[in-house]
Amino acid sequence: MRNKNIVFSVVGLALIVLIFGFFNRENVKDKAEIHEKREIIIKSEEGEYKFNLDEISELGEEEFTADLKSSGKAAETNIYTGVPVKNIFGEKDMEIKRDLQIIVTSVDGYVVALESDEILEEDNVYLAYKENGELLKTREDGGSGPYQLIIREDQFSQRWCKHVVEILLDE
Ligand SMILES: Nc1nc2c(c(=O)[nH]1)N[C@H]1C(S)=C(S)[C@@H](COP(=O)(O)O)O[C@H]1N2
Ligand SMILES: [Mo]
């Protein structure tokens, strides 16, 4: 009797995993396509918008320095080119209210959470597409792009989400 219950539980769990995996398939494929085309999606309750590199670079491009701490290496100061994340939402008149979460998702499934208050700060949170004058390479080409989140004031780089495909303003 107990064995039977265990078997049912295991089969049940396996089914749940398969079903979720099936529905997630399209999602994973869409993200890979966006990554390959150097696009990015901005999302909130108000809607969903896709940008390409040209469109992003017109949203107040800035050059700035930030200290990258890669695992197993000494910190290095790099020059990045990018736009403040708040400008991307501003372009679509999406209001960034205080005390909200911003969820940044990458093509490899890495997810980073920020507070909307951090996005609103000056000179802190950027979506970068160049490092030391060169376009960030894709994951396949061994880079951290095409887009990487740079949080200048973070002491460590674990929230510097590489290969960003989506930024969600979670209301
Ligand atoms: N997409 C993605 N971004 C990521 C990570 C990751 O695994 N996937 N690792 C983070 C961590 S822990 C660090 S320290 C920085 C730098 O990573 P690196 O050590 O690979 O250069 O990227 C961050 N961004
Ligand atoms: Mo890290």
Q: Could you please describe the fold and organization of this structure?
A:
The chain is α+β, with helices and mostly antiparallel strands and 171 residues long. Helix content is 30%, strand content 35%. It has four helices and ten strands. It has helices spanning 2-36, 53-57, 85-91, 116-120, and strands at 39-44, 47-52, 62-68, 76-84, 101-106, 111-115, 125-131, 134-135, 148-151, 164-170. The strands form two sheets. A five-stranded mixed sheet has the order 2-1-10-5-6. Strands 3, 4, 7, 8 and 9 form a five-stranded antiparallel sheet that branches. It is globular and about 65 Å long. Bound molecules: ligand MTE and molybdenum atom.
Concise structural overview:
The chain has helices at 2-36, 53-57, 85-91, 116-120, and strands at residues 39-44, 47-52, 62-68, 76-84, 101-106, 111-115, 125-131, 134-135, 148-151, 164-170.
How are the SSEs placed, and which strands pair?
Elements: H1 2-36, E1 39-44, E2 47-52, H2 53-57, E3 62-68, E4 76-84, H3 85-91, E5 101-106, E6 111-115, H4 116-120, E7 125-131, E8 134-135, E9 148-151, E10 164-170
Parallel strand pairs: 1-10
Antiparallel strand pairs: 1-2, 3-4, 4-7, 5-6, 5-10, 7-8, 7-9
Bound molecules: the ligand Nc1nc2c(c(=O)[nH]1)N[C@H]1C(S)=C(S)[C@@H](COP(=O)(O)O)O[C@H]1N2 and molybdenum atom.
